[in-house]
């Protein structure tokens, strides 16, 4: 392919932007606008209040994850995975670590206590991530109080995870073959206290926001995403489930100890409007928080009874000194709060450095449906739709 | 739907020449597809109700090494059957920058491929024929070179900002 042809798309884009119709105008939203949840720039071609076309521009937070990952060993890459979706660091490193363990053939040897701790911290992190999604979505729509309430409750989770890992948001807690440390003494009890504290707060949140008539009028029937479009665009997680499909990798792939745990998969039912609208996406996240609490309770029960901490338990017991899988390639996927997070590894078997690591971020794919969803809508609704997708730019740009 | 059955469907519907090779003993078995038949294979896998790979999990552009050339790997997954399949395409080792290795775009089959192909083009310089909007996605439009290539050299500076 000739190099001049590679410029054709860029030229076509520039031509489109310079040849606007008499009624069209360009509005730039972002990269510094709070409703874009990070450094995302949306170039909106609008006719007055009506959005005609949205062109997202990414890359402001591109930190070369893939280039870094192929120049350092697996253990050193784990802190970087924390920084991809920085609101759900535990889930990111869990997916990465699962892939490496599967390549090493270690995945069946991980002690049950370690697996349960992993699931526990991942679900705590899932709640924290969903609380951000819910709170900031309220702010996008114009409700300020839920934001403060969500951040107040999230702070309890941050404190607990900081207690376990030493860091507030970027944990580096889950390691290949084990954990950084065992849970601190008293963690299970404090976690139980948090669950008891948090349950009534969730009822309050539902009264304040979920069933709020103003909130419903701003979100119901807005940005309805049909299921076949969602699948075609590779949407996953709450985005896909809100369109009515029971698709959760924790159940589909049955990884870690999820098969032993009892929980439901909430889906969008179109209670307030069309199925798959912004309200459904919001509601799926609220319901998932409830399910995560169930998972946490079950984990705590096992961790306090049959999988109790013992003096000789070493969470680094089978952590390999050198991680160098044999030559192979492997794609691992896991259910992140935002959807399917995948890592594709290629190893050559000689070095302890992967030859290629490709990260498939759920936010990246979920965002790609935005231009499709926002045709002939109001600009205010564009903000409502973008907020309901729940993107993290650290993962879109990687 | 197991691997052999999928292979049989492809050879009977498209022809045996579409499958160049296979990797049966890997953790995830993969089919190596001839680049000329890629689009037909993908369409068949998606639309045939016996395979029904309606979800493209991941599309990765790969540089296998300075002497080995490029490739694209497709991770398909079927929501109705809960199965997964890996397809691989090997591309020519064209590195001088004036001619890019190219393969047909599958963005008409799965729209997921749209942004993933833009990313592969952006970072590895793989050209996708028939892609609707093949611009750089993560790097600036005027960036020179393809950073994930194994022979990539950092430029001295970018718009007067020195690199390193």
In short, what is this structure?
The complex is a heterodimer of chains A (398) and B (164). Chain A is α+β, with helices and mostly antiparallel strands and 398 residues long.
Describe this structure in words.
The complex is a heterodimer of chains A (398) and B (164). Chain A is of the alpha+beta class. Chain A has 17 helices and 9 strands. Chain A has helices at residues 3-6, 8-18, 65-69, 74-82, 89-104, 112-141, 145-165, 187-210, 213-219, 227-232, 238-242, 249-252, 278-304, 362-367, 370-373, 379-389, 393-397; strands at 25-29, 41-47, 50-57, 174-175, 178-179, 328-335, 340-347, 356-360, 377-378. In chain A, helix 6 (112-141) runs antiparallel to helix 13 (278-304), helix 6 runs antiparallel to helix 16 and helix 7 (145-165) runs antiparallel to helix 8 (187-210). Chain A starts with a helix and ends with a helix. Chain B has a single domain (3-151), classed as Beta Polymerase, domain 2. Chain B has 3 helices and 9 strands; from the N terminus they run αββαββββαβββ. In chain B, strands 1-2-5-4-3 form a 5-stranded mixed β-sheet. A two-stranded parallel sheet of chain B has the order 6-7. A two-stranded antiparallel sheet of chain B has the order 8-9. The mean pLDDT of chain B is 88.
Number of helices of chain A: 17
Helix content of chain A: 40-55%
Oligomer: heterodimer
Which structural category do the helix and sheet elements of chain A fall into?
A: alpha+beta
CATH architecture of chain B: 2-Layer Sandwich
Average of pLDDT of chain A: 89
Structural Rg of chain B: 17 Å
Q: What summary fits the major beta sheet of chain A?
A: 4 strands, antiparallel
Please give the share of residues in helix of chain B.
Answer: 10-25%
Tally of distinct domains of chain B: 1
Distance between the termini of chain A: 28 Å
Unreliably modeled segments of chain A: none
User: Which whole number gives the mean pLDDT of chain B?
Assistant: 88
